[in-house]
Amino acid sequence: MKPVVALIGRPNVGKSTIFNQITKSRQALVADLAGLTRDRQYGDALFEDKAFIVVDTGGIGEDDDGSGNIDDYMATQSYTAIHEADILVFVVDARAGLVGSDEVIAKQLHTLGKPVFLVANKVDGVHEASIGEFFALGFGKPFATTASHGRGITNLLEHLTADMPSTAVEEKAPDGLKLAIIGRPNVGKSTLVNRLLGEERVVVFDMPGTTRDSIYIPFEREGQNYVLIDTAGVRRRGRIDEKVEKFSVIKTLQAIKDANVVVLVIDAQEGITDQDLHILGYALDAGRAMVIAINKWDNLDQDKKDWVKIDMERRFNFIPYVKIHLISALHGTGTGNLYPSIHKAYASAMLSISTSRLTQILQDAVSAHQPPMVSGRRIKLRFAHMGGHNPPIIVVHGNQTGQIPNSYKRYLENEFRKVFKLEGTPVRVEFKQNANPYADRKNTMTEAQKERKRREVQKFKKRDKKR
Predict the structure, then answer these.
(1) Residues 235 and 105 in one domain
(2) pLDDT by residue (tens digit) across 10-44?
(3) Is 411 exposed, middle or buried (0-12, 13-18, 19+ CB in 10 A)?
(4) Which residues are annotated as a binding site for GTP?
(5) Residues within the annotated binding site?
(6) Same domain, 254 and 132
(7) Nearest to 300 by CA among 278, 324, 267, 338
(8) Portion of the chain with pLDDT greater than 90, in percent
(9) Cis peptide leading into 372, omega within 30 of 0?
(10) In a domain, 269, yes or no
């Protein structure tokens, strides 16, 4: 599992700027999640060969009245993020100097027993002696940074990632189709987990890591090995309490990244909410194969069912390839039908097609609908090959591919999806510009060619004079 690094500190000390500097090598995965993480951002980061998740926790101590009541400061999502993190980066403002709320936060951090990296940001124009006052916080010498200009970030990352495992040697998860159950709190994820496991559970264990790690549950059904990734933890039958289930963005992110297929659970009684669509967006951005389960369907009257179906058609019209199931996890109605859709989505996500076959499909698609003209020249698409799996990535080579509009890209994606009958997975088409082999070559004429050219020029000049 990837380590989690939380950026903490007072408001306006530069945490978000540091967040952007750390995650710029890889685009941030997640934007704000309304109602759950309003002032927090989560992003994927990669430094050299070390991958980790960064959390910008927002400001702590906004209501600092000098009382030093740290419980008031941390009675927010920041408290959860700090306790879920493996490493804490405590950011202070070098220009403002040491203030009371910095000391209050530091006192609380000392009780957590986690590694803390102290960062003095905005050091431009600040005398080095002024930075020394932060030694009083008890975290050693601060890392001096000016995040707005990227200064000091590399030095911070070198120390921050020193003990992190390389992504190449990350501990291998159990073998099997990895299936993640995701969704908002109280939609029935726990009930569905236990319904899917049923009496087939053979081994239950927690992968080594911190409290934010997901639980990996290997099980077998009809000869097929699975690994169920449970973001809410394993519960014994009869001890499930959906009311106290906590939602964790980090757990959901990790589950999505680790899974081959995700099952998004939605509460039919509440309908499709914006939070459901946010979580759906996480999975689509990660390129994961997906099945949607509308849970608690048996609790609805006919009018409500009709309304939810209309809402589904409207809200999910941009993902027509995703299979939607109407289920009752509590009573088991429809849950068995999830497996065929899961298998189909997995097979589609792991698509492997020969270059010759993909190129033929590409040529057929181009013949049916030509790419647009650019500066009077037709875009030429030459050949296609597989570029990856889960999701399937198809790489198309040609000239002027940087000018291909998104509408034509979607056309090709739909053509590949239609031909190969892909269900439940996004398809990504990437374009590569064919290199011009003569771009950097200058034609140098021989002496004989130069003499021939001179004679031709003289011939044309004499002809013009006669006219």
Answers:
(1) no
(2) 888 888 889 889 987 433 333 333 333 344 567 77
(3) middle
(4) 9-16, 56-60, 121-124, 183-190, 230-234, 295-298
(5) 9-16, 56-60, 121-124, 183-190, 230-234, 295-298
(6) no
(7) 267
(8) 46
(9) no
(10) yes
